[in-house]
Amino acid sequence: MVTKFYQHSLALAFAIKEINESPTILSNVTLGFNIYDSYYYEKMTYRSTLDLLFKSHRLVPNYKCSASKNLLAVVGGLGCDISIYISDVLSLYKIPQFPFGSCAPEQREFPFSYHVATEETYQNRGIIWLLQHFGWRWIGLFVVDDDSGEHFITMLKLLLPQHGICLAFVEQIGQMRRFYDMIEITRLLSKNYQLLKTSKVSVYVVYGDAMTMMLLITTVYSVYDDYEELASMGKVWITTSHIDFAVSQTERNVKLDIFSGSISLAIHSQQLPAFEKFLHIVKPDDTLKNGFFKAFWEQAFQCVLPDPSNYYFSCTGKEKLDSLPGPVFEMRMTGHSYGIYNAVLAVAHALQALYVSRSNRRSVLEPRNTEFQDPQPWQLHRFLRGISFNNSAGETLSLDENRGMGTGFDITNIVIFPNNSIIRMTVGRVDPKAVDGKEVTLRDDSVMWHKVFNQVLPVSRCSDSCQPGYQKRKKEGEQFCCYKCASCPEGKISNQRDMDDCSACPEDQYPSQDQDRCIPKMITFLSYKEPMGIGLASAAVSLSLITVLTLRTFIKHKETPIVKANNQRVTYALLVSLLLCFLCSFLFLGRPSKLTCFLRQSAFGITFSTAVSCILAKTVTVVLAFMATKPGSSMRKWLGKTLTNSLVLSCSTIQICICAAWLGTTPPFPDLDTRSMTEEIVAQCNEGSVVMFYIVLGYMGLLSFICFLVAFLARKLPDSFNEAKFITFSMLMFCSVWLCFLPTYLSTKGKYMVAVEIFSILASGAGLLCCIFFPKCYIIVLRPGMNQREQVLTRKY
To answer: Which of 96, 428, 475, 730 could share a disulfide with 411, CB 3.0–4.6 Å?
Structure first.
């Protein structure tokens, strides 16, 4: 006998007693009850149900020979399968049935049943939630071998992979009554022990009934010599609502502390102080007429009650139920007992409603007839649907449209001490009526784990967690929970454990060195404050000053032959153009703005094109001058200011038109480049049209090439008359700089692209300034004796 379950019978008796003593409900009616055992066996369940309906002295199915036995409702059974067997018989007579165990929705469709426990769907959600909440991804499953167990396995195999959880094994445990020899029992116990000892699993989910748990307890007992080794491993047990830590006479001395720290999803219950008082007054003398009580008392207290045929007895009758250990009998009302209590109250309130309805009808139709006929079971259904009442615990209960009364599950933490005393602590709740996302609540700090874990959260995984910065890689031939860890690809991060894939950072962030987080990028640009910006700005200022000094020198000595011989106006225009070239480099420094982006490339293109146009005009003038000295030459008419001015203006105007078209259609604008640099956001000018940018450069390159070609052809003219050699060398430097600029510009990123362009502007301008004007300044300033008309006119052969 499982003595712990006798509380169910006492809960039924307590409910009947409370109703019969209540002056407010069924005041003129006395309820009675019968208790039958199902024996966890289909045949005996059917036989007991028939006995309940028809047996008086001997069983005659469908025949009642006793008018005093008026059956109104049946409470039971505990398991879904047992409830189905009972319903097969009761539904023929439309008798209300109150199964007090939790069942799957598919198993609740009994035609005349009312469920006092919440359906298993919410229990399954609670299990999944607990596994996810504690990070348990690798679990073992012990399931009773029956229809309910098969359904539970099917549901869990669908749900677990959806939430990233794997089953290490599924072990179906047959019911004890189905084992016919010790060899089969020994084989089962040995297999269970090996699963407990050798498996890497630390968390087990157990689905079944008390017999299932008793078999696992027997497994521990059968290897008692290795118990300490098994207990030292530390396991977490998650049990479902039908399971209780109950023992029979055989397992009474087995240590159960290996199961300490278990988490159980128990049917919700409220404590009834009156029930506990009722348990304290239960005595053998008062209840010996109860056929189960003698067996319960003798097995619970391990003594013998008095027998009229035998004067020997060892039970004093003063034994206290609260002195029994938890696995033998529990004073705290369990969820199943609470369900039985509420089922009886529901029947009583429905019967009360039936009597009130009859009374109201008879008072109108038959005012003189006040006798009640015995109610029939089928008459209660109309009053049971939608019934609502309060029990003595103050909880409001009602039957909904699906004939369910369940109020959810309590998440209980079971602490077992070395003397097998049990403390059940309610640490959470599964509430089907809560808002979405709040169905499961848990107080983590209240959970007590097995002593082996030292209050550190247990871990149950097939593989170690992949730390941030790594991602999971599946192992071939194994479940998805078994994996290896691989570093994130370059440019991606994982900021949580066990990431399936690494993710890229937003455009304004970049991965850290460990690839475990994203770091905001700094906005960078070529600033005046950094060494490179200071150097380039200083070079631009210096070259500008040198250009101004050169221009001042030429203006001061404008009457000297060497200045006059080199076309003064074009020289001045060239120096001013070079000055503007050096100054336009400042448009490239600092954070880009609308104005600087709008002007920089156009200013650079126009000023350089003007400078190159001036050099081209000087070169063409030299060539024409020597050609005009030949006798009979017609080139004299081309000499003069008109040609040079026209050449400079026309060449510059073409570049101005190109830049105007560019600025009028797709002008440059400030932009942020988030892709070029890994750790920086580059504040830059978007050119608007890259094609127009390269047209500007291309036109400037074409002018430079023409100028270089003309100067190269005129390089052998007498030195004292022309600048052809200096122009050739300067244009060679100029073209070399800009030819090197293109690949360098395209291969650099960020602010260094701007630095390359500024350097090219300064270097090419400096080349023109030095190669063309340095020799002249040297003569003007340091060798004034060479700056004479006779020297200039001297031919050198």
So the answer is: 428
